[in-house]
Amino acid sequence: MRAVVQRVSQASVTIDNQTVGQISIGILALLGVEQGDTVGDANYIADKIAGLRIFPDADEKMNLALSEVNGEVLAISQFTLLGDCRKGRRPSFVDAAPPEIGLSLYEHCCERLRFHGISVGQGVFRADMQVWSINDGPVTLLLDSRRRF
Questions:
Q1: Nearest CA to 69 among 117, 28, 25, 105?
Q2: Mean per-residue pLDDT for 114-121?
Q3: Which of 52, 59, 61, 80 falls 20 to 30 Å from 137 in CA-CA distance?
Q4: Which one of 35, 38, 80, 140 is the catalytic residue?
Q5: Is the pLDDT score of 149 beyond 90?
Q6: Cβ distance 26 to 122 under 8 Å?
Q7: How far is 91 from 13, CA to CA, in rounded Å?
Q8: Is 80 one of the catalytic residues?
Q9: Do residues 63 and 57 lie in contact, with contact meaning Cβ atoms separated by under 8 Å?
Q10: Do 73 and 118 form a contact (C-beta atoms < 8 A)?
C-alpha cells in the first residue's frame, strides 16, 4: 500500500460541488492499494500516519504527532499512486488492486486510524473528486508498506 501524506492547515474533498469530507489541521492522505496488499499493509500505513511526528513543537521542530495537535486525517483513495510511468507515455495501472480489494483495504486503513482516536474524513471510493488543500510547510512524505522507498 502506498500513501502520499501532506501536513495541511485545511483540506476538503467535493463531489458534484458537494463537500463530502473536510478537516482543519492535520494530514491529507492519498491512499493507493497494490495487488497483493493485505490488512497488514493497511495497518502499517495507518499506524505510520498516526505516529508521524511532523507537526511543530514550541521550538518549531517537527516533533509532534496528530494526537498531540488534535489533528485530523482526510483520506482519499487514489489508485493512480500505483501508476507505472517507466515505459511509454501512458501510465500502466496493472499493479493496482482490483476495486473490491482496494475499497476493503482503504476502509480498513480509515478504521485503523479511528482506532488510534483520530477523526477521519473521507472521499468516496471510485468517485470523481476534487481535492483542495493548503499544504503546511510544505511537508509532503511518501509511504510504502513494502518499504521500497
A1: 25
A2: 98
A3: 80
A4: 80
A5: no
A6: no
A7: 24
A8: yes
A9: yes
A10: yes
- Within 10 angstroms of residue 104's Cβ, the number of other Cβ atoms is 16
Residue with C-alpha cell 486510524? 113
d(CA 76, CA 6): 12
> 78 burial class (0-12, 13-18, 19+ CB within 10 angstroms)?
buried
To the query of whether residue 79 is one of the catalytic residues in this protein, the response is yes
Active site residue 122: no
Which three-class secondary structure string do you get for the chain? Answer: CEEEEEEEEEEEEEECCEEEEEECCEEEEEEECECCCCHHHHHHHHHHHHHCCCEECCCCCEEECHHHCCCEEEEEECHHHHCECCCCCCCECCCECCHHHHHHHHHHHHHHHHHCCCEEEECCCCCCCEEEEEEEEEEEEEEECCCCC
Q: What is the pLDDT of residues 74-106, one digit of tens each?
A: 999 999 999 999 999 999 999 999 999 999 999
